[in-house]
Specification:
two-stranded antiparallel sheet; single chain
């Protein structure tokens, strides 16, 4: 295993990531907030470590397939820990480094689980930094890196394949991988700008609009207020959030195709998008129906419809924004909302979860097995769109699903063991972090500050596994991986 070159790549990414401290540092300097030292030290430490690691390797080389898994994991772990420094050093912030690491990993993995309270009175430089963390993690720091690392003499294809999930892995939008990463980021940036403008026109201040645009398009869910989107009490703001959450849950390569060809009909032709929109609609109908039958005061059904639609989209896309106390709804509704997060968004989107295309293939495989019972000698190909899906892809989906269930069960058991929390809280906390959702149920519905340090670090592992889609990390624990 070539460790020094991989450390050099990690160093290069740390140098890039140092820019994340620049904007909040500038804000703190301009406004006189006492976070200047925290961001200055973070910038110096991150770029200093990055420069030292970068100097370990100066020769250009293309990554091998196995190198991509290790360097991707190293990058996310490194960014999670260096990203925790401002939360730890800022005055009056988080008391322990475990808390700071939890907040940082939640940001960079776009989970949205938080241990911070009193956001309405918090330093704005910190609020801006939290939002930037999620925005950077949304498309993936690795995809950003492959657009820049070739300039430093580092090939990026293996990084791109191990970071990007689903069907986008084997499809380049442009002839060169650097151009592909740049194209994805241009689309990502463009949607973010549109989202910020829409929020501003809907009534947010420009600061709130910018921060919420970062976390909406990243499907992260961090807010600048304790009441999240509910703070604004605005139908216009909520409809903007719903629209951009749905848009950000769609494959970004499809967004590029639509833009490049000027053909919005490509959305309608994509089977994954159709399934995704149908799933969102079904969940919203089920949630509203249950709330309706529980009893809605006359004249409030439109408000109930908007709130149930918002929460359904927020949970199903794994964003995690809130407009109301959903725990007060009939008990089956919060459980249903949590279940929707297991599906998540489309492959190649910023959403978490198992991903829509995997659920599609699992369901179609189930239908095929039923058909085979009726017609044992029949041939029933599985298709997504006009093309049949290979047996290799189906095997990979079932392998991922099996690994996902096993990892979820193990994390759930360990969390019960170390946290001492009740069944409902433990189940929802692990599910929310593994699916990169954020808000849970029970004792973690309002935040994760009450958890013990070991519990928080276990959930950090869950967030990272969920963001890297499990296999990228699990492969590192196999003996075969480390053999020459």
């Amino acid at each position: 295993m070539r460790i020094r070159p991989l450390l050099g790549i990690v160093g290069s990414v740390l140098l890039i990531f140092g820019a994340a401290f620049a904007a909040p540092l500038a804000w703190a300097l301009l406004t006189g907030e006492p976070t200047v030292w925290a961001f200055s030290a973070s910038l110096a430490l991150t770029t200093g470590c990055g420069a030292i690691l970068r100097l370990q390797w100066r020769r250009p080389a293309e990554l091998r397939a196995r190198d991509g898994f290790l360097v991707t994991s190293l990058i996310y772990v490194s960014l999670g820990f260096v990203g925790a420094i401002p939360f730890w050093l800022a005055p009056g912030m988080l008391p322990t480094f475990a808390d700071a690491a939890f907040e940082s990993f939640s940001g960079i993995t776009t989970t949205g689980a938080s241990v911070l309270a009193g956001l309405d009175e918090q330093f704005r430089s910190i609020l801006l930094y939290r939002s930037l963390l999620q925005w950077i993690g949304g498309m993936g720091i690795i995809v950003l890196a492959v657009a820049v690392l070739p300039m430093l003499g580092v090939g990026g294809m293996q990084l791109y394949r191990t970071e990007t999930p689903g069907s986008v892995k084997d499809k380049k939008l442009t002839p060169r991988i650097t151009q592909t990463a740049q194209a994805l980021w241009y689309i990502y940036l463009g949607i973010t700008v549109l989202c910020a403008g829409a929020y501003f026109l809907a009534g947010m201040s420009w600061f709130d609009a910018m921060c919420h645009a970062f976390t909406t398009v990243a499907i992260g869910g961090f807010s600048t207020h304790d009441a999240s989107i509910g703070h604004f009490d605005s139908a216009a703001v909520e409809w903007v959030a719903i629209g951009f959450m749905i848009l950000s849950g769609i494959n970004f390569s499809l967004h590029f195709t639509v833009w490049n060809r000027r053909d919005p009909r490509a959305y309608a032709r994509d089977s994954e998008v159709r399934f995704y929109l149908c799933f969102l609609s079904l969940m919203a109908i089920l949630v509203f129906g249950r709330v309706w039958f529980a009893g809605i005061e006359p004249g409030t059904w439109l408000l109930a419809l908007r709130e149930t639609l918002f929460q359904s989209v927020s949970f199903a896309t794994t964003t995690g924004f809130a407009t109301t106390d959903y725990e007060k709804w009939p008990s089956v509704v919060p459980a249903l909302l949590l279940i929707t997060a297991f599906v998540g968004g489309c492959a190649g989107s910023t959403a978490g979860g198992i991903k829509v295309y995997r659920i599609q293939l699992i369901l179609r495989q189930g239908v095929r097995e039923v058909n085979r019972l009726v017609h044992p000698h029949g041939v029933f190909p599985i298709k997504l769109g006009p093309q049949p899906v290979s047996a290799r892809v189906i095997d990979a989906v079932w392998g991922f699903f099996a690994a996902y269930v096993a990892v979820f069960a193990l994390l759930f058991y360990l969390f019960l063991l170390v946290s001492g929390m009740d069944f409902k809280t433990s189940l929802s906390a692990v599910a929310a972090c593994l699916n990169n959702l954020g808000p849970g149920l029970g004792d973690v519905a309002e935040g994760y500050a009450s958890l013990s340090a070991p519990s928080k670090l276990l959930l950090v592992c869950a967030m990272t596994l969920g963001r890297l889609e499990i296999f990228t990390v699990l492969v590192l624990f196999t003996a075969r991986y480390w053999r020459p």
